[in-house]
Model the fold of this input.
Amino acid sequence: MKFGIDLYIGEWISDDKYRLVITKVDGLSALVSLFGPDGNPIKRPYFENKATLDMPAVYKDYDGIFYVHLWTEGSGFELHLDNHWEELIGEKEKEALGVGISRYAEDEHLDQYSMLFGNLSSFKKQENA
Done:
């Protein structure tokens, strides 16, 4: 049975074809790459057009949430992932990541970029990953 950060490691895909690849660094941190529906990493215009590759992420034991820094730590956007099980009609239960996005209050100029990351539907674990 997996616990903590190990619940998040692997490859995940959303219904609208966004893909997350999460690679463990140590017991609380990981690197995350986010790919758009076209299969390419997303360019972040607010961050010198850097691609969403190997972004730093941290698992917080106290709340069980996995936080992905979409800019620099402590500023900009942050993706919040929560591991759970979903039952899809006519299918067996599948491991999933609930997803949310936040931004720091002082970075309101970033609101124009919030749709870069899709509709934020949950990500399903890929069986072969």
Summary: The mean pLDDT is 86. The beta strands are 10-14, 19-24, 29-35, 43-44, 50-51, 55-60, 65-69, 77-87, 93-103, 123-125.
